[in-house]
Hints:
Elements: H1 22-44, H2 50-57, H3 60-91, H4 96-111, H5 114-117, H6 122-125, H7 127-136
Amino acid sequence: MLTESIPVAPTHDVRVRHRQHPIWRVVTAIVVLLVIGIGWGLIVNPNLEWVVVAKYFFSINIVRGLLLTIELTALSMAIGITIGVIAALMRLSPIPILRWVGWLYVWFFRAAAGPDHLLVQPRCTDPQHHARIARSRPPGQH
């Protein structure tokens, strides 16, 4: 049995260059043509009525909705990160009940699909909720 270490010669920096397959250029050309075609179709389609889009693009309701969306996204991220860090710390805890609760929390949100979580939020699954909002608006507002 050989127990001595064998000296290894110093290696130099080897750069590996991937060979390009000829089909890559064909696929790239197809994707570029599809993107150009979709873009052209969006520009010249008379059904899109770009004048109307431009008119309402910076309307106060659209801007308010955009700002609310950004605020809710930031708040959701902050809450999610906080809860995630707490759950991770619980799973690393030496206290068994904290480890168990942290494991259960992570298991629940990994095991259930996203739409399943909406079932615990009745407002999101209640079709009449949107009808009540629409009826509560004054006439003439959309």
